[in-house]
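SUBJECT: A protein chain and its fold
Encoding: whole-number codes for local backbone shapes
RECORD BEGINS BELOW THIS LINE
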Amino acid sequence: MPEIIRSLDITSLVHGGRGIGRHDGKAVFVPLTMPGDRVACRIVKSKKRYLEAELYEIIDPSPLRREPPCPFFGSCGGCQWQHLPYREQVRWKENIFNDLLVRSKVISSDRLKPIVPAPNEWDYRNRVQFKCHLTAKGLVVGFYRHGSHFVVDIDRCRLVAPPIQRVFNLLRNDLPGAPCPDCITQIDVACGDDGEARIILHASSKGCQQLRPWLQAFAGCHQLNVCLQSGSRKAPEVVCGEGDLTIKVDQPEIALRYGPGGFVQVNSAQNRNMIASMLELLALDGTENVLDLFCGMGNFSLPLARRAGRVTGVEDYAPSIARARINAAANNIDNVEFHAADASAIMNNYPTSDDLDLVLLDPPRTGNYQVSHELLKIRPERILYVSCDPATLVRDLTPLVHNGYEVVSSQPFDLFPQTWHIESMTLLRNPSSSE
């Protein structure tokens, strides 16, 4: 029988979103709690210096705790912080981010900028992945329960943009009539800034053959853009409508097309805020030679190219590079070139004679430690690191700081309200570079 701690005072929140208290000299991590809560919890993992627990009962709630507006909160793993008022979410994200960076000694506190809150705490996500599982009662569509592959059946998500919820309603209504429901594993729904939506249905090869006619009829009936994905390595097949969606960035606006399988920030409003902050921070004068690693379809490359001398974008997903070239031509930006290549390979072979004024990198959540070391070989004047995980950010900044780079500023952005995730933008400078 797992041990139950009958009374635990939660004093803080940590990276990963859990509350922390102390019991018998050990730290205890408990999800779905907040500072000021007194709780009972059940120990699920015991380590030498800490305990991991699950919430058993809220004995005395924090005076700041709010009632989560979503009926699925707590069972669905999509959100972790709905019980925190949004101002508290922002405050704790800033505290956690600042603490991680300062304790790691990669930055001093005077170089930290205030967090940029999201304009909207609800209805902000422009893309989402719904998980699917066939049960005796039919096809369940929703999100994984936290820490498991159990699919929680939902009929609404408060985080998604209205066009996505509209499509989700149609799917829930029509999916019971789909053939081969056991072949459906995941359904991606995304929308552009104009409200146009796109569905990518993931299924086995056998399932794709049976589902294609049904999907065509479904898409035609509701006038939807629908793609079919068989396996993780194949590009999605456009079944009906247009595969590309469009977001808009910068002023005057740049329209950016991105295809199925391509990356786009989930929060369009905050993406625009990040680009505006980036341009203000860099203050380009029109002469700079810029390298944009993990460039995608040109989200940062094209606004930079408007203000720099030359921009080179690198991305290993070839379809995104194809869109980046289309986007550059469509927006009459001709001082940029794009290459479909691995960032580490490009950096390893980059000519040291090619003076780089700026390298921008926006790697996946896992970061890219190898690229950090490759950057030390060419030593660009400035490095702008866009990160969605403070822990990997610290890891990747450490070799740069230990080898002469100094952090000019670092600023968190909240792209993910109701969750513990933190986006950030960190500028480094090589003091030995000529001004």
User: Anything to note?
Assistant: The mean pLDDT is 95. DSSP finds nine helices and 22 strands in the chain. Residues 4-65 form a domain with the OB fold (Dihydrolipoamide Acetyltransferase, E2P) fold (CATH 2.40.50.140).
